[in-house]
Amino acid sequence: GQALPPVAAEGLSSMEFYRQQIVMGLRDYARRCGFKKVVVGSSGGIDSALTLALAVEALGAANVHAITMPSVYSSAGSVSDSQALCLNLGITLDEVPIRSMVDSFCTELAQSSVGEPPSGLALENLQARIRGTLLMTYSNQYGHLVLTTGNKSELSVGYCTLYGDTNGGLGLLGDLYKTEVFALS
After folding, report:
1. CA 150/CA 160 separation, integer angstroms
2. What does the alpha-carbon distance between residue 66 and residue 40 come to, in Å, rounded to a whole number?
3. Cα–Cα distance between 114 and 63 in angstroms, integer?
4. How confident is the model over 106-139, as pLDDT tens digits?
5. Which residues are paired to 67 by β-bridges?
6. What is the pTM of this model?
7. Burial of 153 (0-12, 13-18, 19+ CB in 10 A)
8. Residue of 3, 7, 51, 130 with fewest CB within 10 Å of its CB?
9. How is residue 41 annotated by DSSP?
10. Where are the strands (E) in 13-161, listed by range?
């Protein structure tokens, strides 16, 4: 791995300290667990963008892969922002639309003895879980470590989906509040 430069006598700013710790932590965790590459679900938002940027710093662009998984509810910017970010970072971005997968779940539930498709929160969580399943399938198929993108603010108030956006082996932003995500970005 790459050695970090010596720290100046006055120390590091909090954000620089966090950045160096996250980069070092990912390098060490990946090495110890036998991973050379990582995969991240790219939503076009700041959490996935920062996770991707930190992963590139830690492992190099050739070892970071992104997947965008738009649904009928995704904004046009979610894909275009992901494309621009990945182009700027020099990483591969795949697009796997999930609309037909969501529709299939809804149709099958409606035609089953349950008798109705998911709606509201259940539908939102279904989309997150489909995305999480796709990332874990990619991980199993190609041997990449899945990085989660949630931050401490989301986790502390439960603004995340179990088996969805919480899927993965390591969360680089898990100890950062959303305000710190903005500052580090």
Report:
1. 7
2. 5
3. 43
4. 999 999 999 999 999 999 999 999 999 999 999 9
5. 41, 94
6. 0.91
7. middle
8. 3
9. E
10. 38-41, 64-68, 92-95, 145-148
Using an 8 Å Cβ cutoff, are 149 and 52 in contact?
A: no
Sign of the torsion formed by the C-alpha atoms of 64, 22, 175 and 11: negative
List b or e across 97-130, with b for residues whose CB sees 16 or more CB atoms inside 10 angstroms.
ebeebbeebbeebeeeeeeebbeeeeeebbbbbb
Contact present, 12 and 20 (Cβ < 8 Å): yes
Q: Quick one: pLDDT at residue 118?
A: 94
> In Å, what is the CA distance from 123 to each residue of 71, 72, 102?
11, 12, 8
Q: How far apart are CA 97 and CA 87, in angstroms?
A: 19
CB 82 within 8 A of CB 43: yes
Which residue bears the tokens 């796709």?
134
Helix (H, G, I), strand (E, B) or coil at 6: coil
Q: Confidence band (pLDDT; 50, 70, 90) for 2? A: low
DSSP-derived secondary structure for 150-179: --HHHHHHT-S-TTTTT-SSEETTTT--HH
159: Cα within 13 Å, side-chain hemisphere: 11
Query: What are the structure tokens assigned to 155, written together?
Result: 């986790």
Give the orientation angle of helix 14-33 with respect to helix 46-59, to 10 degrees.
60
CB atoms within 10 A of CB 37: 17
